[in-house]
Amino acid sequence: MVEKVIRDVTARGVRMRVVEAGSGRPVILIHDFLVSHLEFENVLEPLSGQFRVLAPDLPGFGESEKPSPARYAYGIESFAEAMVDMIAGLELGRVSVVGHSLGGAAAITLAAEHPELVERLVLVDAMTYPFRLDFRSRLPFLPFVGGVLFKQVYGRGTFRRHFRDNVFSPGFSLPVERIDRYYDQFNTPAARESAHAVMQSIKDTRPIVARITRITAPTLVVWGRSDRMFPASFGQRLAREIAGARFDVLDAGHSPNEERPEEFVRSIGRFLPKS
User: Fold this and answer.
1) Which domain, by its residues, includes 105?
2) Are 186 and 140 in contact (CB under 8 A)?
3) Which run of H or of E encompasses 99?
4) pTM (2 d.p.)
5) pLDDT band, very low/low/confident/very high, at 135 (cuts 50, 70, 90)
């Protein structure tokens, strides 16, 4: 069992929980929306045998502080700057960054705005191009009633259905215990308000798309073949638009690191520098 170090880092004035394991070249894992660093628990140990792995909970999620949106500007740019503060606070120097979905958008922004900090970049089913949501997923975006639904009505059953219908591929055995841990972390007034603020901030993905061609770090794009939120064609397009990027497709849905952890570790382990 790998030894984990749990620490708190102040990022843009917000307390951010970071789980760290291993030694070697630093690798940051940035999680998706509605989850936390727990989505990487199946890959943290094998990666820590090769790298110094740091998995933060973004502000508003997991065990990090959840300030009011009146005090903290939730959004992709703020999350990228939180990574800058973490890198500086832990004196990491240049890092490799692995970003999944929402975390992929933050990783794109970090690599575009602070190229001096990013040695290599891995984008996993990254939020980039405009995407369509099913009816249930669109409800929280409705004016007035959407916020009430999301902050007060969105229950454990709806949460599980979201992961079943959108995140994991058909037929995959749901990690119900982990999904329930995600829900328990989400199910407080402060966490719901933070998540809703993030949701409102990502309706327009054009600022993310505009940064794609500014990426200069060597990049690997990893995608789930059966992703029902962001189709694999998005990954192909993303790899074409980043100079020299590699593209790897895994037999998974929107979260290949959870569905295919061994293949995921092999894929990014071949790409990331070890010495």
Assistant:
1) 4-271
2) no
3) strand 95-100
4) 0.94
5) very low
